[in-house]
Amino acid sequence: MKYSATELASLLGGTVEGDPGATVSSFSKIETGKEGQLCFFANPKYEKYVYSSKASVILVNKDFEPGQSVSATLVRVDNAYEAISKLLKIVSDSRRQYRRSRSLSARIGWGTKIGRKVSIGEFVRIGKHCTIGECTIIHDSVSIGEGSQIGCRCIIYPGVRIYPGSIIGDGVILHSNCVIGSDGFGNVPLPDGSWQKIEHLGNVKIGDNCEIGACTTIDRAEMGSTIIGRGVKIDNLCQIAHNVEIGDNTAIAALAGIAGSTKIGKNCIIAGQAGIIGHLNIADGTTICAQAGVIGNVRKSGEVLFGTPAIDRLHFLRSYAAFKAQGEKK
Q1: Which end of the chain is more exposed for a tag (fewer CB within 10 A), N or C?
Q2: Is 242 a catalytic residue?
Q3: Domain boundary among 95, 120, 138
Q4: 275 and 237 in one domain?
């Protein structure tokens, strides 16, 4: 990686303020930036580092007005956070070389079709009658069950387990040790107090450009499909139960759990440790804040929910103020 400030401005649709020939060859946090490095400034609480940073170039928003002199060259863009994200992807893609390779220890079932430039690591197991799209990278010790379909340009990191019949779109990233298609937690209580397992005969469908975090589990449906929409981003250590449906471009942070048959709308945000019980409908654009517990349907789009049981943000803050005041009286 090597870019001049002029090249960065052209690539990111920005303008240069300072030395147009300033060059960078690596990235850094703004707190620790050094000569030859590129940083970005988007959060106001880090403004003091803009003035002290030794970085050669800093990406900033076009409306940023420095309160002191800045030694670094500034590249002004519409949105510094989006710009650095775009640049990181460009650099990452340039380092990724797609080529056909297959470890001698990999085992591929008969009837499976492997696309062009697919890389298959050591001790990979791919079942019968699968399809793997072109330019997909399958790292070591991955297991892909019979009849599964994997799209193009996917990245499947070590230790991922994909159960039979799973359908995964293009550009999907599956991080280490996530499990796609395990049985849901379905059991019927019997008169003698024991439990009878409910067999799960459905599958999991994951849309294009999704990312599933490490050690996250997505259960297969009892019947039909558990559905993860296009562009969904799920963090590490999340639980998505059987027959759940998640709408396009929803983001789910670590340790969140969604119980069976709940339907989550598009463009929702579910923060860390949030929990949602089963058989609910959550409207598009809902934000469920950290550790919130949702026990009822959310019918109005764009609501922000706090607390357990989760309620509207403003109601929660009023209630919290009342609880706090009552406690202080004691």
Answers
A1: C
A2: yes
A3: 95
A4: yes
β-bridge mates for residue 245, sequence order: 227, 263
Going residue by residue through the chain, which has 330 residues, state the pLDDT in tens, using 9 for 90 and above: 899 999 999 999 999 999 999 999 999 999 999 999 999 999 999 999 999 999 999 999 999 999 999 999 999 999 999 999 999 999 998 888 888 999 999 999 999 999 999 999 999 999 999 999 999 999 999 999 999 999 999 999 999 999 999 999 999 999 999 999 999 999 999 999 999 999 999 999 999 999 999 999 999 999 999 999 999 999 999 999 999 999 999 999 999 999 999 999 999 999 999 999 999 999 999 999 999 999 999 999 999 999 999 999 989 988 888 888 877 776
> Residues 255, 261, 264, 266: is their CA dihedral positive or negative?
positive
Q: How many domains does the chain divide into?
A: 2
Catalytic residue (one of 139, 175, 200, 242): 242
The tokens describing 234, both together, are 């799920």
Composition of the chain by helix, strand, coil, percent to 5: 15, 30, 55
The CATH number given to whatever domain includes residue 188 is: 2.160.10.10
Q: What is the pTM of this model?
A: 0.90
Domain endpoint, select from 46, 69, 95: 95
Tokens of 179: 């499990």
CA dihedral angle for residue 205, residue 206, residue 208, residue 213, rounded to 10 degrees: -170
Structure tokens belonging to residue 250: 């929803």
The answer on 79 and 135 residing in a single domain is no
Find the largest Cα–Cα distance for the chain: 79
**Does 23 share its domain with 109?**
no
Cα 50 to Cα 21: distance, rounded to the nearest angstrom: 19
Contact 252, 229 (CB under 8 A): no
Angle between helices 80-95 and 5-12 (to 10 degrees): 100
Residue with tokens 């400030």: 5
- Asked if residue 81 and residue 138 are part of one domain, the reply reads no
Q: CA–CA separation, 207 vs 216, rounded Å? A: 16
